[in-house]
Design brief:
The chain is α+β, with helices and mostly antiparallel strands. The protein is built from 32 helices and 29 strands. A hairpin with a 2-residue loop joins strand 9 and strand 10.
Length: 909
């Protein structure tokens, strides 16, 4: 064991210095003292005095050390040491109480002592000679001279000893300054006070300052003057020593904390001197106060911490148990302190705990220490509970201590269970809402599709088209809300399959072809030539995301281009997998930097976006982001206001397929007239009458016989009676649902081979995936796509397809547009750019249909009067869009009015 480093500055001091602990063990010996006792640091460090020097407990040195430890008094003695080799030395020992025990300063006064002894012996001999041999003195003059020479030599040696003492005094002063311990003495007989240099420094006075007793006392703090006065008085009157911590105010006004030691020296029952030590402990007090404050802060934290904190030693005994731990485990701290921590553990952890600690101490292998994990705790009543445990370790006084922080997971588990129940309820609610919302939507979309076939009047047909557009927009909104809810509930699953990215991108281009042409935009499709032909992706969800992005790009772009770019990331490619990069770029209105994160939040749009002009709910990008993330990807945006935006999708580790898909879903657009069915009967099973009427109208128009019933039980009876060719089976119905009815039909040999097509408005993807396993031959979702219905039936009932000639549904209201040479007079141009432009701004701002229609009529009339075809065409188009409630087309046309003016200016005269 090595000596305490803080005493190393005594190593090269020529006097002996040692520090003894309260347990009488050697804390420190400097080199001088080690040399004197002829031992090394390793031989004595940490040993007790009795171990190294048997019998020392009977010596004055041992007694003085114990006295200084118990009373705090400083003292000094002269001690003679006799070594094993016969050497004899004399040392002056000064005992001083220090925080670690007792410090002993040892000054070798052997020469001085021996000189005194020789001098005494010489004097005695001289007196004897004078008294006994006076007559021989003259005869022995020569011998006497020799003796005088010897005495002179002894005097010289004595002076050397005095010089050595002075040197040691200087060293002692230096030691005082380093230790901030000084000495003082009050000589009551001569009424003088002596201070050592360090005492002067502590009081911040010059060394030539010679205080009186009163002046010395007046340095003390006013509150402490009565105390020191009483202590000095008791020392004078009764010889009582003292050792107190007091305060002084230095000559410079600084307040210091000091430790004052005083010992009375008495003769004949009277105190003649008081001497002692004086130590500046200001820094020590500051440290102690800081430690106490830190300890108070730590205790406050531990007492108020909501988590339990428990500390143990390596033996497993509990050393700390905070209030939160008391509440958590049901024990008071005094009930567990000093006991083994395993009392808080259920089996088998209780039996394994001690062996685990021993194994860790032996091998250093950690299983819990420095980590966090879920474990079981045991309360005082014997019940177990889940908790989260984190354990750290530290070393204190040479012992390992482990501190654990425990958090009760009971409430979290309860909340998790409640959340799962709530999530289940939410899923059931979504399924019910899907059914309830899609059922009326089925009628709206289905009957409008049916009417579009039956109505030929152009205006009425435009009304039907507006209903179809609005109902499909509403269905998209409903689907987005339900999909977003499923994502947030963790119920939406990604369905991976082999797809052709080229085919999907061409489909996206086809979907938006008409809108892009209407807004006179350029559509650029760039496909990396190294892009694999087939990839494994969720085609439905990827299409859904791309439709949102491209649709937004078109919506917010008035001129320029839309660019869809698809490539593989060359920097991230491994065997059988690629990173797929999809970019959608536009030259539209752009997005402010502080809005670029906001747009991905649900129901949020960028600030300043005109809801009337652009519409939307703010769901599209939020849903797209969540879908992309579910497919192991991310989406980001870069944009500049009024310049455009670039949305980038990165799908990571997309599997490459070497096999083409089994079949692509047909993209052909079917119409009822395209199908000519042979004889066939369809059983329609649905509890909603409007659904049955819609399906019946379509199927009868297609030449099929229809039987309808409103529940599964009736379906069993009708199947037995009518033997249908195909059964359209709704899933959710009263009395008997579609699952049970289908199961009974498949169990009956007479009906087991009849094709059954499931019809459902359910949002549950799990349910959709199980239709085939439950005996269904196909699946149709509500709202029904009537063309898809006929296409599905054509797989089970023989039919012939007829190719129809498309009619031009976008004929102009103008009977004829003649390519004339036309010009615009200045007065008309001025009217168009001033009064009519002001009117245009008003109708565009407020969106009142009557105002827009009146504005359109004025333009048509002016165009006719002045024979200007573009003006006539603009007014007629806007009037038709207003009459047919084509809101999107109407807004696009209104927005192009400045372009019309620009075109007309080139023809102005």
């Amino acid at each position: 064991m090595a000596f305490d480093k803080k005493y190393r500055f005594f190593d090269d001091v020529s006097m002996g210095v040692q520090v003894i602990s309260p347990e009488m063990r050697y804390i420190y010996l400097n080199k001088e003292l080690l040399s004197q006792i002829q031992m090394s640091e390793e031989e004595i460090s940490g040993y007790s005095m009795t171990e190294k020097f048997p019998g020392i407990e009977k010596t004055d040195v041992f007694k003085e050390i114990q006295k200084s430890l118990s009373t705090g008094e400083d003292n000094k003695i002269i001690n003679e040491f006799i070594f094993e080799d016969g050497r004899r030395t004399f040392h002056e020992l000064n005992f001083c109480k220090v925080p670690d025990g007792v410090m002993i300063f040892s000054s070798d006064i052997t020469d001085s002592k021996m000189g005194e002894k020789l001098l005494q012996e010489s004097n005695e001999l001289l007196e004897q000679k004078v008294h006994q041999k006076t007559t021989e003195l003259e005869k022995s003059n020569e011998n006497l001279q020799k003796k005088i020479a010897e005495v002179e030599k002894l005097n010289l040696d004595f002076e050397k000893s005095q010089h050595q003492l002075e040197k040691q005094k200087n060293i002692h002063n230096a030691i005082e300054e380093m230790a901030k311990i000084g000495g003082w003495e009050i000589d009551l007989e001569n009424n003088t006070v002596w201070w050592s240099p360090e005492v002067h420094r502590i009081h911040e006075v010059d060394e030539d300052f010679k205080p009186t007793v009163e002046e010395g006392i007046n340095f003390y703090h006013p509150d402490d003057i009565p105390v020191i006065t009483e202590l000095v008085t008791q020392a004078v009157q009764d010889g009582i020593s003292f050792n107190r911590e007091l305060r002084i105010i230095t000559s410079k006004g600084n307040v210091k904390h000091v430790q004052t030691h005083g010992t009375a020296n008495r003769k004949n029952g009277k105190t003649t001197k008081i001497y002692g030590a004086f130590q500046d402990i200001t820094e020590q007090i500051k440290i102690e106060n800081a430690l106490r404050e830190k300890e108070l802060q730590m205790r406050t934290i531990l007492d108020t911490l909501p988590d339990g904190v428990i500390s143990i030693y390596e033996t497993g005994q509990i050393q700390m148990f905070n209030p939160a731990a008391e509440e958590l485990f049901g024990y008071q701290a005094e009930e567990v302190l000093g006991k083994n921590i395993k009392m808080l553990m259920p089996e088998p952890q209780r039996s394994e705990h001690d062996s685990y600690i021993q194994n860790y101490l032996k091998t250093g292998e950690k299983k819990v220490i420095g980590m966090s994990r879920e474990v079981l705790g045991m309360r005082a009543d014997g019940s177990s509970f889940p908790m989260y445990l984190s354990i750290g370790e530290l070393e204190s006084n040479g012992r390992k201590m482990f501190t654990g922080i425990v958090h009760d997971l009971t409430a979290i588990y309860a909340a998790k269970d409640a959340a799962e129940v709530a999530n289940q309820a939410k899923s059931e609610f979504l399924a019910a809402m899907s059914h309830e919302i899609r059922t009326p939507m089925n009628a709206v979309i289905g009957f409008s599709d049916l009417l579009s076939v039956l109505i030929s009047d152009k205006t009425q047909k435009s009304y039907i088209e507006s209903i179809q557009t609005a109902s499909k927009s509403l269905l998209t909104l409903i689907n987005d809300i339900l999909d977003l809810s499923k994502v947030e509930a963790g119920r939406l699953e990604i369905q991976y399959e082999t797809i052709s990215p080229h085919f999907l991108l061409q489909e996206i281009e086809q979907i938006f072809k008409v809108k892009i042409q209407e807004k006179h935009l350029d559509f650029l499709l760039e496909i990396d030539p190294e892009l694999p032909e087939f990839l494994v992706l969720d085609e439905v969800r990827l299409r859904q995301g791309l439709i949102n992005l491209v649709g937004n790009a078109i919506k917010f772009t008035e001129r320029g281009h839309i660019k869809l770019c698809v490539r593989k990331d060359q920097a991230h490619e491994e065997q059988g997998k690629i990173d797929l990069i999809i970019e959608v770029e536009d030259t539209g209105i752009g997005i402010a930097l502080d809005q670029q994160e906001l747009i991905f939040e649900s129901f949020r749009q960028q600030d300043g976006q005109s809801a009337r002009k652009y519409g939307g709910t703010g769901l599209g990008l939020s849903l797209t982001k969540k879908l992309i993330e579910l497919m192991n990807g991310r989406i980001s945006v870069k944009s500049t206001l009024n310049e455009g935006s670039l949305f980038t999708i990165q799908l990571r580790e997309v599997a490459v397929s070497q096999k083409a898909p089994l079949a692509y879903r047909t993209k052909e657009v079917f119409k009822p007239q395209q199908f000519t069915f042979q004889e066939g009967r369809v059983l329609v099973v649905d509890d909603i009458e409007s659904n049955r009427i819609l399906v019946k109208e379509v199927l009868v128009e297609a030449g099929l016989d229809v039987v309808e019933v409103d529940n599964g039980h009736s379906a069993l009876l009708a199947t037995d009676e009518y033997n249908p060719s195909v059964i359209l089976m709704d899933i959710r119905m009263p009395v008997m649902d579609g699952y049970e009815a289908t199961n009974k039909l498949r169990s009956n040999p007479k009906t087991s081979q009849i094709p059954i097509i499931a019809v459902s408005a359910s949002v549950s993807i799990e349910e959709k995936n199980t239709f085939k396993d439950r005996g269904f031959d196909g699946y149709l979702s509500k709202p029904l796509n009537l063309n898809g219905l006929l296409a599905e039936l054509s797989l089970h009932i023989p039919c012939e397809k007829v190719t129809l000639v498309e009619e031009d549904q976008h004929e102009s209201d103008l009977s004829e547009i003649v390519d004339l040479e036309w010009t615009v007079p200045s007065e008309l141009m001025e009217r168009l750019e001033n009064r009519l432009k002001k009117q245009w701004k008003e109708v565009k701002e407020y969106g009142v249909f009557d105002g827009i229609a009146a504005f359109a009529a004025q333009l048509s009339e002016l165009g006719t009067d002045y024979q200007i075809p573009p003006l006539v065409n603009f007014g007629s188009t806007l009037k038709f869009q207003t009459d047919s409630f084509d809101i999107e087309g109407m807004n696009v046309t209104l927005d192009s009015y400045p372009d019309l003016l620009e075109q007309l200016r080139t023809k102005q005269y």
